[in-house]
Every structure is written in structure tokens, then in C-alpha cells.
Design goal:
Bound molecules: 2'-deoxyguanosine-5'-triphosphate, calcium ion, zinc ion
Shape: globular
Distance between the termini: 55 Å
Mean pLDDT: 95
CATH topology of the largest domain: TIM Barrel
CATH architecture of the largest domain: Alpha-Beta Barrel
Low-confidence stretches: none
Number of helices: 24
Strand content: 5-15%
Largest sheet: 7 strands, parallel
CATH class of the largest domain: Alpha Beta
Number of strands: 17
Amino acid sequence: MASNRELVRVIRDYAELLTLEEGSPQAFRVRAYQRAADALGELVEPAAEMSLAELQKLDGVGKATAEKILEYVATGSIAKLDALRKKYPAPFVELTRIPGLGPKTVVMLRDRLNVNSVEDLEAALAAEQIRELPGMGAKSEEKIARAIARLGLHGKDRRTPIIKVLPVANEVIAALRAVAGVKRVEYAGSLRRFADTIGDIDVLVAATKGEPVMAAFTALPVVAEVVAGGDTKTTALTSDGLQIDVRVVAPAEFGAALLYFTGSKAHNIELRQLAISRGWTLNEYALADAETGETVAARTENAIYKALGMAYIAPEMREGVGEVAAAAARRLPKLVEVGDIRGDLHVHSSWSGDGRSSLDDMVAAAAERGLEYIAITEHAEDLAINGLSREQVRQEAVEVARLRDEYPRLTILHGSELNVGPDGGLDYDDDFLMEFDWCVASVHSHFDSPQAEQTDRVLRAIAHPAVHAIGHLTGRRIGMRPGIEIDVDAVFDAAAEYGTALEINSHLDRLDVPADLLRRARDRDDLLFTISTDSHHVNEYANIQWGVSNARRGWVPAEYVVNAWPRARFLRWLGR
Ligand code: DGT
Ligand code: CA
Ligand code: CA
Ligand code: ZN
């Protein structure tokens, strides 16, 4: 029976392909399917057991979607989805990841120039054919070529953004955990290390018999094609061309296999050298004595790290960037954990044009999650359509005051998400800004300005007395839009000087500040961070786990995360 998770993935795929059909992500039908996917994601009961009438009663699910869900539950596919997949194959859909190429443009590229993939597009660029199309010019060609290079979209190195990969991996893992005789299932590789783009999914299964595991794997709806099948290793592809490697290992060797296949390669090499220096060997089966072959440790990763004389290293840190030496010297930072988080300082409601849950629902959900404090940060007036006028800010303040009475145990800050203008100017005016309890300032426009300009605008926002945090620092959308170019060290210096925190945005699409930039701050003790969800829907509070994983990957210690502080300490800092 199809799980809700599987249905959400299928309906989201449908919405994505409909975008091409309709020519816009804002098209009514596209939005309708996205809303339906949100509704399914929130649902506790299995949707596959619901009737047409019951499905339609769900907020956001209309008749057309309800019928498609029933069709999928009954047949394992949706005829219209299959037709769209045929019409828009994965290599073609990939083109929409390039900034500036909307759905209408990619369809035009195909109609006029027979461009069906990034490779075709590169050929058309080389032949200077794009500039001949309406609305295009030599400048557009240059921009597209730069985007392809920066996004790493070419050839065999093609990588998939983590937001696309996680749902697939979770579906595989949930299914394999249900197979009889299976002791453990985990994903390994770059996904376990929480890299923001993934080459392929590596899944490890602890079981004595491989055959039933592989039978269950290859029968999964998400598997479109089996590339190589065997009882201990099977490689398959999804309909998007994403590769999944499943390996079955003996339960007694699971730790060694998990360590090996989690990598990274650089991390593995360092560990192996350490093992060799002690007269041992380390491979995917065991840490063993080089002479006698006797096993030293193999069942758990922890046992292997311990035998090598070092602290356990979190998977997110295993990139061969100094973590092995730090673990051996017991100098690893105490990383932040999901359980440390006490507040969420970037929350939207339907007062923002793009918010999808009411303010009452957002506050109720925060209280239910046990948060001690939140900041409501709607978009500000300079953001077209989505932003709040001053009048609306005042109206919302009345609602916030009422909710404070209703939820006395939750501290509700009334804040704003300001827009950092091209020259660093902010919304409203200074007196008005100082009335907010909390302001996060974010770049939402002018992503292509040169580095000096970008740095200056961010520095100006950091220095503004009303600004407590800078939101999603680079503005990147993983695999879709490169971040703005900034002098990161200058930004860190200014943030430290003004005591302005840097937000780690938890959205899987953003993960911004990116981990590699966070790592550049790891020897500093003067920077503060927030880890926030930027929720636009009650479902999105759960995204905090991704922000935390990204912070861990960036070596951020718990003590520098202000919303991991108890309320009293946080409020004292805020009143600084
Ligand atoms: P990806 O898939 O490109 O995003 O990155 P990974 O790290 O998942 O790489 P993948 O799938 O090729 O291999 C999974 C892990 O297996 C890798 O992180 C470390 C281990 N591994 C693979 N090949 C080698 C190798 O030649 N030497 C060593 N030491 N480890 C390897
Ligand atoms: Ca991999
Ligand atoms: Ca692999
Ligand atoms: Zn936001």
C-alpha cells in the first residue's frame, strides 16, 4: 500500500511537470497540486485507505487530486503523470534548474532548437544560436554558460540537490526495514554526510540473506530501471535518472561497512593510514590485525573509532578537513543537536503573501512543538506582493498581542524579515524598524551584482541597529541558483563587531549559510548563529533538523547558536 510519503513524492513530481505544461510555477493547477502535497504531508492517517469523499475533505485537496491519489493507490501509477514524464524526460527537466530559464523558455528552446538536455544547450551556446531567440541576446548566452559552470550541471558529474534525494532515500529505507530478516538499514555516502548535492544514493542493509532484500528493492515504485542486479549489491535508477546502490552486508560487519561507504574517500584514507601505523588493516569488512587477520572491531563505527584511539566523528564532519586529527586530540567541537533548539527566529504566516498557514496555526504549532520562543517575521514592504505594509504590521501586532495572552508560556516576538536593498538599504524607516522585537534582514533581489557591491550591501545591513540577524546569507537555491558573491571574511568580521547573528536557514533548498562557509569560521569564537526554519507552513517547523545537520557539517558548536540558549539568556542577549 502506498505510504503518505510516497504519495507526497508522486504528487510533487506531478506538480513539477505541470509547471512545464502550464508555463509557470504560479499556475493555478500547479499551486493546487502543491497544496495537496502539503496536505498529504501533514496527514497522520494513511491516505491510501481514504475514499474519494474523505480525501476531498482534506484542506487543499480537490477532486482532480483526490482522483489521482485513488488511481495511484489502485494501479501504482497515474496515467497523466506517465504521459508528462514521456513528454518531459528527466534530462530535459534538468534545464529548468538553470537560473533565467523558466518553463516557457525551455519549451521554446526545445521547439525552436531541439534542445533536450544540458548537453544540447551547451552545443547551442557554442553555436551562438540562443541569441537569435526572442528575448535573448549575447548577454543571456554568457549568463547561461556561467550558470551551467557554477551549478556543475555538465556531463557525468551531474549532481542532484539533496531536497530531491532525501524523499527517495527515505522511501527506500522505510521499505527495506520492513523486509523479514533485516536487522538494520541506513543510508551512507554523501547523503549521510549531508552534502548539499548528491551523486548517488548508497543504502546499506544488515541481513544474512540478500535475495529477499533485493527482491523488495527492485519491486519499489521509485525504481524505474535495474542497472546491475546481485544478491549483495544492486544498482538501480529512478525515473529522474538518480542512481541508488543497495548493498547487503553481514550484521557483524555492519559498522565497518557503514564507516567505509559513508566516506568521504579522504576521511577513509586518513583512517586507513592511522590503522596501518598501528599494524592493522581497515576495509569495508573490519578493522583487523595485519598479521593474523584477527578482527579488532567491526560491528559498530563507534568501536572502530575507539580502537583507533579517537572520539566518534559525526558523519556530517567526515570530509577529510581536519576532523581525524581533532578527534585523535579530543578537540572536536561539541556540535549542536536538534534537542538543543529552544526557539525559532524566522517564521512566516499567511500574513505574508507566500505564507500558507494562518498566524494562529503557526503559533499553535510552535507551542505544540514545545518551543520556548519564536519570532514572527513576515516579509516587509519592499518585497512585491508578499510584503506587509505598515498598516498591516500594526494590524498583525494586535493579533500577536492576543496570542501572547493565549499562550503565556511561549514568548512571541513580533519581528520582520527585511529586504536588503541593492545598496544595503532596508524597508520602512528607522523609527518604524526600531519598534520590531526582532529583525532578520535577507537578500531577495539583485543576485548578480559584483562582489564588492554585494559585500557592501550586506555589511550595511549588519551594521543597522534594528537588525539582529542576517537571513540566508548567500541567497542560493541548491542546484538552481548560485549564491551572491561576497567577501565572507569581511562579513564575518562585521557580524562579530556588531553582534549581529548569522542565520543558518534550514530549508533543504537553501541550507544557507552553506557548510563550507561555516567551516571557514570554525577557528573564531566571536560569531553567533541562529538556526531557523523560515517556515511558511506548520509542516515546516520540522525542517529544523536540516538546519542543525548543516550547522554540524559546518562545525558550529552548540554554544554559539543563540536559539539553543534558554529563554532567559536569549532575551538578555536580545536586550543588549
Ligand atoms: P557522491 O555519491 O558522489 O555524492 O559521493 P559519495 O561520497 O557518496 O561517493 P560514492 O557513492 O562514490 O561512494 C560512497 C563511499 O564509498 C565514499 O564516500 C567512500 C567509499 N568509497 C568509494 N570508493 C572509494 C575508494 O576508491 N576508496 C575509498 N577509500 N573509499 C571509497
Ligand atoms: Ca553516493
Ligand atoms: Ca555509490
Ligand atoms: Zn523568510
